[in-house]
From TrEMBL:
The keyword Transmembrane applies. GO terms for cellular component: plasma membrane. Keywords: Membrane, Transmembrane, Transmembrane helix, Transport. This is Equilibrative nucleoside transporter.
């Protein structure tokens, strides 16, 4: 019976591709939802000032960034329609007290994004080390992913409730506690990511690209949700609560989906069983080749992958989120004060990145990885260009580029990253046989994490030097 089912199971390629797409989304939910809720954290981590109390019904929030409410101003409403008109300046809070103007942000606010990112990478590194050293003593990869996703769902739910704590008198302690709790979630994420790469070694090489694209889709989902909530003009605390509740729902829904796939998908379980069967048949202690020789075999692809990730994380997201429009007092105040960072820095970056990843489906991978590495090195010119954009606060370096140029630089950074990452991640497994692939590909998240952590530390230095 099993032999008769094999042709049908092996032909169902799309099911496995969709599973890894969804897995790529779900493992990155905590990270992207933390990073994309930048303005909520700017509100939460502002200096020790009294929090606003609930206002009467004739008060409205001028914008989600404003925590002191402005009275409704009636602009000669007709008796029939009773329309309330509010000026754009009042909606964005230009005539009231904003949470923290970009030029006056505290060190905690300035380094929030980089701090979260470094915490994420260090926790990920610890999880990857455990999976690498004790992989044979741990449960099967699919079981590890299940338990990691369950832990993520529970911890993210607790985190959503903890967001409502009033931390006015203990901002530094709240920030430290938030980083500790984020580390626990990121550790679970690391276990899931390491197990995911181990699981992928038994599937088609193209599935690596699907998983990478899924991670990028998660960034787009979180950014789009953020922009939608901004349009509702909610109070900052309510905005953050709704945002993280949505993230909790996505995590729980995708976790349930993965449990369902593992339990009911013959295609998925068959591929896993085939991979595990091949591992058991191998002679004990069999070694294909030293790891150094395997890496040398794909050296240019490996170098490209690491160089692209490192270059991007020197400036994104830590520096890019500090960039604001050059002329804040002219043009649309709503666009510049409310939508610029969520739309340009997060949403457009994710869309350009995804476009680059998806276009690799029609681009033939170069036979010589050196070509890709040359393009990766050329991207480094984008780092100084972005440093001289209007990132605030800045005390030493001048601003040389305007908003349009910043958008172009960021778009090129994202698009080139998407193309180069997907081309290399798909090309590497095709050069190696299945045994070699398992050893090399599991090492990728570990080495990448070290590279991006160092890049993020360098990013913190840049943020405090400019």
């Amino acid at each position: 019976m099993m032999l008769k089912a094999i042709p049908q199971v092996k032909g169902n390629y799309k099911i496995n591709a969709w599973v890894f797409y969804v897995l790529g989304i779900m493992v990155m939910v905590p990270f992207h939802f933390y990073i994309n809720s930048l303005d909520f954290w700017m509100y939460k981590l502002q200096s020790n000032e009294p929090r606003p109390q609930p206002q009467p019904k004739n008060y409205i929030p001028p914008s989600y960034r404003t925590h002191l409410f402005t009275p409704v101003i009636w602009d000669k409403p007709s008796a029939e329609s009773e329309v309330i008109r509010i000026t754009e300046a009042q909606w964005t809070g230009r005539n009231s007290n904003e949470t923290t103007p970009p030029k006056e942000r505290s060190p905690i606010q300035i380094n929030f994004t980089s701090g979260v990112f470094i915490t994420f990478k260090l926790s990920l590194l610890a999880a990857l080390l455990i999976c690498s050293v004790w992989s044979k003593r741990l449960p099967a990869p699919e079981k590890r992913i299940q338990w990691s996703l369950l832990a993520l769902s529970v911890m993210f739910s607790i985190n959503t409730v903890a967001m409502q704590i009033n931390c006015t008198k203990m901002v530094a302690w709240y920030f430290a506690g938030m980083l500790v709790f984020a580390s626990l979630m990121n550790f679970a994420t690391g276990m899931a990511v390491a197990s995911l790469y181990e699981l992928l070694s038994g599937f088609s090489p193209t599935h690596y690209g699907f998983m990478q694209s899924g991670q990028n889709v998660c960034a787009i989902i979180s950014s789009t949700l953020q922009v939608c909530l901004l349009s509702m003009r909610l109070r900052p605390d309510i905005h953050g609560c709704v945002y993280f509740v949505c993230g909790t729902f996505i995590l729980i829904a995708t976790t349930v989906y993965f449990f369902h796939i593992v339990r009911n998908s013959k295609c998925f379980t068959y591929t896993i069983s085939q991979s595990e069967g091949e591992k058991k048949k191998r002679p004990r202690g069999e070694v294909t080749a030293p790891l150094s020789k395997l890496i040398w075999k794909i050296k240019w692809y490996y170098a490209t992958f690491l160089f692209v990730n490192g270059t991007s994380h020197v400036v994104y997201p830590g520096l890019a989120v500090l960039v604001v429009p050059v002329n804040m007092d002219t043009g649309s105040a709503v666009w510049k004060h409310v939508y610029f960072v969520p739309v340009i820095t997060f949403l457009s970056y994710g869309l350009f990145n995804l476009a680059g990843r998806e276009i690799t489906r029609i681009i033939k991978t170069p036979n010589n990885g050196l070509v890709l590495f040359v393009f990766a090195v050329m991207r480094i010119v984008l780092v100084p260009l972005l440093i001289f954009c209007n990132a605030l606060p800045r005390r030493h370096l001048p601003v040389l580029f305007n908003d349009v140029e910043f958008i172009c630089f960021l778009g090129v950074l994202a698009f080139s990253e998407g193309i180069l990452i997907n081309l290399t991640i798909v090309a590497m497994p095709t050069i190696l046989d299945k045994k070699e692939r398992e050893a090399v590909m599991v090492l990728i998240p570990f080495v990448t994490t070290v590279t991006t952590t160092l890049a993020s530390i360098f990013n913190v230095l840049i943020n405090n030097i400019i």
